[in-house]
Task: inverse folding
């Protein structure tokens, strides 16, 4: 116990991040289930309005700040030193500090549920002045602000650590242009974190000042400016969605290449497109503010459209990697194919709402809910599970059961689409987001009913996943160093790796050190 | 290092270009220009730092011909395995922030504990 609480080893820290984010995922998923239960029928009254506001706020907040983004941080913590051949992170203590700030911050946000007045209820975007009303909502909102400040600082510390480690601790011969795509994506992600998170920390502090120290930053009655809140929040918020997807782009590239038995197609394009996306994503924040009428819609619409280009490059590269490969349809690979299909829909709906006239129609409707769940759920979450299947043997020395895994992948894909396709149509029929109930008009009852059935299927699939974890860990079938035939450095050490990663560093002469070694020894990749 | 500088300098130039474009297109609104300007400045600072302060950095990872043998024997430094201070830093930061709102006593104790932990953390890092 003390061993884990005080460790500064990057693999233990990474593992704790992963375990913590999965625990938060269970809670956030249960909250999603409650939302869908309430919305399964028109005019439902299972939960009241104020409870409903807390539930969707905490669902979204937890998924974003405590699950999708930090899981990638945990995975990167585990993988980056292994992928570049370093013994540990550059600043192991700073790394541990990041982990504990994250855990403490996450628990603080959830502690809101235990207060009089309940948890934060102003949406994950926490708009001021709504979040500054101190009547009715009290301590929960304050704990939310404090918790997010702590997790924000955690992210900044960890990003610095990643960049220094990657620049200074690459093994002999591991030049920048030989690094695995996942590590590259984490460079871009870390820069984004450093650019975006200070804005979040600042704006959370401003809300605290308004709430407790008589400030008026965002209170229009005293000359404050609510639009300023939106600018600062989305200057963080939009890059944040790329902080939540770039690492998973990397995961998908690694998995597709491994199971197609081909090196990543268009490696340089893959790297440059990551940086192009990161750069552009810092210039699109106010597409969330089109309907305020207070921003330059042409500017933000134009840059939003531009993001489709590097994203398209990535799609070409993923498909090019599969092209004429000898594909093995493992669970991880199937989840990546699910990722490609879902994320495509998320991307296309994104281009639609990047057009201000269309956004005026879709804004604050379930169309938006559909859009961002296809990118973050159908995209990031699918890749998250793919990463679990792919790296589980390396992290825990145990392979997850493939047959149960494929059932999980199939049910998850089915449930996901049954849940979220109807939401787009409900949105077009006028279903507003963030409402606790809706009247029985048009096809809303049917569409919402379908959504709720889909969520039940997702729940079954996720339970199946955790059963798989338990069964596989009990069976403990030993795995070799390289169970999937991967090409990067992490597959050349034992599973799980020794304390300082490599007893002896292998030579690195190309992007594919493990495949080079196999070739030398006359082992076939297929 | 060259690649590193190229990426940061490139991002900084991108920041300047977007910042200017934003200023020209959306000039009635200052927040965005300020944010983009700060961003470009931060990126440029990092690139300049790498060019000026680290220009002689000789990293084994930058040489494509480098083999493990050639680098063998080079001290990578010693890595710590355990420290109790990080988790205490996190807990005292929480105490400080919570106390700031509801109880000056807890707030100041948290601040004191945080400073103590940071000091010990720094002292420990200086040793290993
Ligand atoms: C796994 C199944 C999931 C289901 C069934 C689900 C369902 C929902 C529903 C019904 C809403 C309410 C929409 C509204 O009233 O505005 C919602 C909101 C939200 N969800 Fe999910 N969700 C799931 C997963 C995720 C994931 C993986 C993320 C990842 C980031 C996510 C992020 C959000 C966010 C940010 C909100 C908005 C909260 C707000 O309006 O403040 N959800 N979700
Ligand atoms: Cu956005």
Result:
């Amino acid at each position: 116990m003390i061993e884990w609480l005080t460790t500064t080893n990057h693999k233990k820290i990474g593992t704790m991040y992963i375990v913590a984010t999965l625990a938060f995922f269970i809670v956030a998923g249960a909250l999603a289930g409650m939302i869908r239960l309430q919305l399964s029928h028109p005019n439902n009254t299972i939960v009241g309005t104020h409870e409903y506001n807390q539930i969707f706020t905490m669902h979204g907040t937890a998924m974003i700040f405590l699950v999708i983004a930090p899981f990638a941080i945990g995975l990167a913590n585990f993988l980056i030193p292994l992928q570049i051949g370093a013994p540990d992170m550059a600043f192991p203590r700073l790394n541990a500090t990041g982990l504990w700030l994250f855990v403490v911050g996450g628990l603080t946000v959830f502690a809101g549920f235990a207060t009089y007045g309940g948890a934060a209820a102003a949406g994950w975007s926490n708009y001021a002045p709504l979040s500054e009303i101190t009547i009715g909502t009290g301590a929960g909102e304050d704990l939310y602000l404090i918790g997010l400040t702590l997790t924000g600082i955690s992210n900044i510390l960890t990003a610095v650590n990643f960049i220094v480690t990657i620049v200074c601790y690459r093994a002999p011969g591991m030049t920048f242009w030989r690094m695995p795509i996942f590590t590259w994506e984490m460079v871009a992600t870390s820069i984004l974190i450093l650019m975006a998170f200070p804005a979040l920390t600042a704006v959370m502090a401003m809300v605290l000042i308004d709430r407790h120290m008589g400030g008026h930053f965002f209170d229009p009655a005293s000359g404050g400016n609510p639009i300023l809140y939106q600018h600062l929040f989305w200057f963080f918020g939009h890059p944040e969605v790329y902080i939540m997807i770039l690492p998973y782009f990397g995961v998908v590239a690694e998995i597709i290449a491994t199971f197609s038995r081909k090196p990543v197609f268009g490696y340089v394009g893959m790297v440059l497109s990551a940086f192009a996306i990161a750069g552009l994503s810092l210039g699109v924040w106010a597409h969330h503010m089109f309907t305020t009428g207070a921003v330059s819609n042409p500017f933000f619409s134009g840059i939003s459209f531009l993001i489709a280009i590097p994203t398209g490059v990535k799609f070409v590269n993923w498909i090019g990697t599969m092209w004429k490969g000898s594909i093995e349809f493992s669970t991880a690979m199937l989840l990546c194919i699910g990722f490609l299909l879902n994320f495509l829909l998320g991307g296309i709906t994104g281009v639609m709402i990047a057009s201000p006239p269309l956004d005026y129609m879709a804004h604050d409707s379930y169309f938006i809910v559909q859009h961002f769940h296809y990118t973050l759920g159908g995209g990031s979450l699918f890749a998250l599970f793919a990463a679990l299947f792919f790296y589980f043997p390396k992290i825990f020395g145990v392979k997850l059961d493939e047959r149960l895994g494929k059932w999980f992948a199939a049910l998850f894909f089915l449930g996901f689409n049954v849940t979220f396709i109807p939401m787009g149509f409900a949105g077009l029929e006028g279903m507003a987001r963030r409402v606790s109930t809706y009247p029985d008009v048009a096809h809303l009852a049917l569409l919402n009913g379908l959504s709720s059935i889909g969520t039940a299927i997702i729940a079954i699939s996720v339970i199946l996943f955790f059963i798989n974890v338990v069964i596989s860990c009990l069976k403990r079938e030993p795995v070799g160093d390289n169970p999937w035939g991967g090409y990067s450095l992490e597959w050349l050490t034992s599973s799980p790796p020794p304390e300082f990663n490599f007893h002896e560093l292998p030579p690195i002469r190309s992007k594919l050190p493990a495949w080079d070694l196999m070739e030398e020894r006359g082992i076939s990749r297929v | 290092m060259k690649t590193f500088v190229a990426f940061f300098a490139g991002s900084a130039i991108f920041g300047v270009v977007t910042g200017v474009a934003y200023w020209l297109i959306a000039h009635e609104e200052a927040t965005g220009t300020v944010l983009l300007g700060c961003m470009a400045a931060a990126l440029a600072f990092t690139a300049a730092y790498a060019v000026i302060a680290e220009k002689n950095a000789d990293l084994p990872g930058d040489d494509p011909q480098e083999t493990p043998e050639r680098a063998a024997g080079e001290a990578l430094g010693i890595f710590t395995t355990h420290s109790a201070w990080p988790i205490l830093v996190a807990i005292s930061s929480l105490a400080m922030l919570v106390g700031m709102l509801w109880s000056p006593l807890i707030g100041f104790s948290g601040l004191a504990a945080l400073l103590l932990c940071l000091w010990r953390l720094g002292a420990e890092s200086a040793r290993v």
